[in-house]
Fold this sequence. Notes:
Elements: E1 8-9, H1 11-19, E2 25-28, H2 32-37, E3 44-45, E4 64-67, H3 72-83, E5 89-92, H4 95-102
Amino acid sequence: MAVELPLEIEAEELASWRGDGRPLTVLDVRERWETQICMIAGSVTIPLGNLPQSLDRLSGEAPVVVVCHHGTRSLQATAWLRRNGFANVTNLRGGIDAWARRIEPNMSSY
């Protein structure tokens, strides 16, 4: 049975989940040039435009936290995934920018 997550979570909550070893997938929907600058370790990278044909790369079991630069594209991806059968998906509010500022301040940013 899938656990429905809130529409968005904060960077601190994702950091806590990762620290607890909670099984989850961090899905980064930014373009390749963006993920080359910075990304959350262990993320699955699928640019937003490629998401519809790449669903086989996502597990239907583990929660999915979707990330982009500031949270707009990832919120679109979260809504799209939910409409297409993925109830266990949430958006990282503020995106990689919030993560870099509040969780990994030494991370490169743009």
